[in-house]
Structures are given as structure tokens and as C-alpha cells.
Specification:
- This is 2-oxoisovalerate dehydrogenase.
- The protein has a seven-stranded mixed sheet, sandwiched between helices. It has a five-stranded mixed sheet with strand order 9-11-10-13-14, sandwiched between helices.
- The longest helix is centred in the N-terminal third of the chain and has 15 residues, at about 10-25.
- It has twelve helices and 14 strands.
- By secondary structure, the chain is an alpha/beta fold.
- It has two domains: about 5-190, Thiamin diphosphate (ThDP)-binding fold, Pyr/PP domains (Rossmann fold); about 200-330, 3-Layer(aba) Sandwich (Rossmann fold), CATH 3.40.50.920.
- Helix 10 links the parallel strand 13 and strand 14.
């Protein structure tokens, strides 16, 4: 039986958290201002009111303490969901994430599980100050023992947060903050439907001229570029990665063998990044199918700029279309 609701990405995550908490009393939500305020983006709005202060915890401003406490809770059988208020604030908790969260399951030969979800609003486009618009996902995707995913739409937001919470592995859940409350991103979500597997990428628009692979906030840019390219007679196939570690590149390989061209799109800087890994893997697997080198459209290899310059920093529709033209001219 279907139950369709038209939701923004932010509301979909809220409902996904709510359903996970209803189904399992061991699920806890914790972070800075997540309780009474409902989070700075209001993603946890109403949860403390409905589930109480012992299940929705307002923590001190101390990311290392948030993650360290979550480790102890996980050892005791709870499933903590930690919110990092902005991605640039995650680094005080970096040691706990890479040295404890990522390794305890392996170090104990599976005796101690780490069912921790770390929610990370990430990316630019909100006109924020320093440390509020970064894209550190490649750092965590490189760490064995961690799994990393990113939603780009309301349907995935609703289901993926629940799937992450049910996982016995620690998962970093990167959320495209500039799309949280976008009316343009509202979608019909069947809250009683069957979700796609968590660690699978997906073709979200079919095409034959070139492949564009993206994740998180960049998926919307890729889809907008595909719409614009269609007016010029070019058919772009768009793939939403969804899972960043482990990478599911089989749909990308299949697409590139069809189109012969690949553009990898991300807001993160290009140097030693996920787009670098995608380019290397596609070259290994699809070398004889490629009609042009794999090209990338990314942020620049600089610290994130002041807000008044971010529109020049972030990959946009024009940069994607220009790169498609470069690929076709090869």
C-alpha cells in the first residue's frame, strides 16, 4: 500500500529519522542544537518534543565529545545518529572518526559493532562564512572501515537515512544543505515503498552522447545541464553515485562503454579527490571504449572563498556544458 507525500529533502530526512526512532528505541539523535531548536537547518525539528530529551540530546559544542560519546553508546548497544552542524566543524572529531569509529569493528574481530551514523550537511551555495561551505567527503572515503553516502533527492533522503541507521557499520551521511528546503527539489515520496539498495549508484537520466557522473548537490547541476544540452541536440546520461565508499562504478562503466565519454562532477577540489578515483577506474576498465579523456568539473584547489565569490567557485551548468563540448571536440 503506497503513502505518497510531497517532501523537500530536509523534511524527508526528518521523517526518515522519525520513522527509525519509532521502529527502534535504541536509536538516539545527538548534536549541537538538535533538540529544542531542531537543528540550525531544522532537520530534527519536533523530534525532541515527541521522543524526549533522553533520545534527542543537545550536546556541548564539542565534536570530539559528540563522536566519542557515540562510540560509547554504540558499544552499549545503542544506534546514535550524530549531527555535525556544518561540515567544516567535523575536524575536531576527525581523530575519533578515523581512529575509533572506523577501526573498532576490525580491531575486535567483529565483536564490537559501530552502528553510528554521522550526518554532515555539506557543500556551498548558501552564502555562509568560513568553515560552512566545504566538501570534505574525499577525506573520509579514503578511510578503511568507514562507509560514505550522499543523497541528492527527497526519495533517497527518506530511505537512505533509515538504511544507514539500520547498518551495523559506521556511515557518514553527507547531505546537500543548499537543497534542504528547495521547492524545486520537492518530490513525491512513497513512505511505504521499496527503496533501492543503499550502496548502489543509479542512472537518473538516460543519454547517448556523453556520461556525467555526480553526487549530492552536483546531481541537480548535472540534470540541469542535460536539459540544456538537449536543446542543442546532445543527449547526456546522468548517473547519481549515491554511495561514495564503497564506490559502485558498474553503472558508470556500462554507460561509458555506450557513450564513449565521461565528465565527473563535484563541488570538491580536484586534487586527489573522488573525481580522481573515478577517472582512474574508468580509464582502467573502459580504456578501449573511451573516445576522449575523462574530464572533470570541480571546485578549485583553493580554500573555499568568501560568499560573494562562491558563484565563481562552484561548478555550474555553463562549466559542465563547456566541458561536454571539450570532450566532443577531442
Amino acid at each position: 500500500m503506497s503513502d505518497l507525500q510531497k517532501l523537500t529533502i530536509g523534511k524527508a530526512i526528518n521523517l526518515g529519522l522519525r520513522r527509525a526512532m519509532e521502529e527502534n528505541p535504541k536509536v538516539l539523535v545527538m548534536g549541537e542544537d538538535v533538540g529544542k531548536l531542531g537543528g540550525v537547518f531544522r532537520i530534527t525539528d519536533g523530534l525532541q518534543k515527541d521522543f524526549g530529551e533522553q533520545r534527542v540530546l543537545d550536546t556541548p559544542l564539542a565534536e570530539s565529545g559528540i563522536i566519542g560519546t557515540a562510540v560509547g553508546l554504540a558499544v552499549r548497544g545503542f544506534r546514535p545518529v550524530c549531527e555535525i552542524q556544518f561540515e567544516g566543524f567535523i575536524f575536531p572529531g576527525f581523530d575519533q572518526i578515523v581512529s575509533q569509529v572506523a577501526k573498532l569493528h576490525y580491531r575486535t574481530q567483529g565483536k564490537v559493532k559501530m552502528p553510528i551514523v554521522i550526518r554532515v550537511p555539506f557543500g556551498g551555495g548558501i552564502g555562509a562564512v568560513e568553515h560552512h561551505s566545504e566538501s570534505p567527503e574525499s577525506l573520509f572515503s579514503h578511510v578503511p572501515g568507514l562507509k560514505v553516502v550522499s543523497c541528492s533527492n527527497a526519495v533517497d533522503a527518506y530511505w537512505m537515512i533509515q538504511q544507514a541507521i539500520k547498518s551495523d557499520d559506521p556511515i557518514l551521511f553527507f547531505e546537500p544543505k543548499k537543497l534542504y528546503h528547495s521547492g524545486a527539489m520537492k518530490a513525491e515520496v512513497d513512505t511505504e515503498g521499496t527503496p533501492d539498495p543503499l550502496f548502489k549508484s543509479r542512472v537518473v537520466r538516460e543519454g547517448t552522447t556523453a556520461t556525467v557522473v555526480a553526487y549530492g548537490p552536483s546531481v541537480k547541476v548535472a540534470l540541469d545541464a542535460a536539459t540544456a544540452a538537449a536543446d542543442e541536440g546532445k543527449s547526456l546520461e546522468v548517473i547519481d553515485l549515491r554511495t561514495l565508499s564503497p564506490l559502485d562504478l558498474d553503472p558508470v562503466f556500462e554507460s561509458v562503454r555506450k557513450t564513449g565519454r565521461l565528465i565527473a562532477l563535484s563541488e570538491a577540489p580536484s586534487e586527489t579527490s573522488l573525481t580522481s578515483e573515478i577517472a582512474a577506474r574508468v580509464q582502467q576498465e573502459c580504456f578501449y571504449s573511451l573516445e576522449a579523456p575523462v574530464l572533470r568539473v570541480t571546485g578549485f584547489d583553493t580554500p573555499y572563498p568568501p560568499a560573494k565569490l562562491e558563484e565563481h567557485y562552484l561548478p555550474d551548468l555553463d562549466r559542465v556544458l563547456h566541458t561536454v563540448d571539450r570532450s566532443l571536440a577531442w
